[in-house]
């Protein structure tokens, strides 16, 4: 291909990509998780698909070992690389994976390096280099129709075969997958990722579907405040409690005891370690499912959800670290913070000590006091009271930031609002005194 033809081809590709991006901008992205049925592959094909992840790790570590000049001049058509074995000896390797996989590893490293450079310029501090990887568990499939394509529903080849299968570059035969029923009929397929997990290999397929308006049947539920805790993980201002704790199974404890008795590095030791990883994956899936269900129950039909910026990471290091570790509080907090209808209150706001009726701070309350009793006569459960206090603080913030003239200053400043404003003024920390030498 001469230079003129190459430029014309690149121009055509660029115009097609612009049209695709414009079309996807008006659609909603959706990620579909499909599990590959590896039983339909023979031994050589099964070894080859696992070898893809090994070769990606070889290539990633090889590129990280190059200097900046050699990294820039690296060509994705190169197949011969050098790597270190477990004893630290240099070994010549030959890559057999498709060229698109090599391009994906190289492009991913370039993005990571640019991100580190941008962070270094922003903070002005040294943030180190990318580290060598002991495993490579995610391969980017960035071109639908080339690196991967699927046939599902009533589709198939000209003979009507290979329904509900996925084709991956480098594997000649189609692979049957589970979970095709999740794909909408009007979905437009895009890039994907091949992900290796202890329970198998998954295809994370990105689809684009048309945006659909709500059906109008959603209830208009009242505003709500939520309080995070240890004993009762989630408590709402309506008095409802959710438990999103999934504790370790007896099987996991047994496998950990078995691993401690085995010889490190033996075949049985590796088999037991793999089973432990599978158990941890099951626990993570259960906790994620609980967090998603609670998130849906809290958010659906509400215009304002108020929560506090709790220090979940600090809770892990405290007295109840085991209980926090077994819960999905961190996952739920991250999902709530990404919702535009959720208002996050400052971490140091005394939601436990402040009375939602009169706004007085009760300084003598302890962790063992499960009932909040104020001098004004207000009495309620400690966690429910904290959630109601957060809701009042959030509504007070919203009322003060509404359009001018909607509410008068007198209407805004209730007893609780005055107490909240007084707390904000007192929360301004003075400058810390210099340490004595």
TrEMBL record:
Keywords: DNA recombination, DNA-binding, Transposition. Pfam families: Cas12f1-like_TNB, OrfB_IS605. The keyword DNA-binding applies. Residues 341-389 form the Cas12f1-like TNB domain. Residues 218-306 form the Probable transposase IS891/IS1136/IS1341 domain. GO terms for biological process: DNA recombination; transposition. GO terms for molecular function: DNA binding. It comes from the Bacteria. In the C-terminal section; belongs to the transposase 35 family. This is Transposase. It comes from Candidatus Ornithospirochaeta stercoravium. The lineage of its organism: Bacteria, Pseudomonadati, Spirochaetota, Spirochaetia, Spirochaetales.
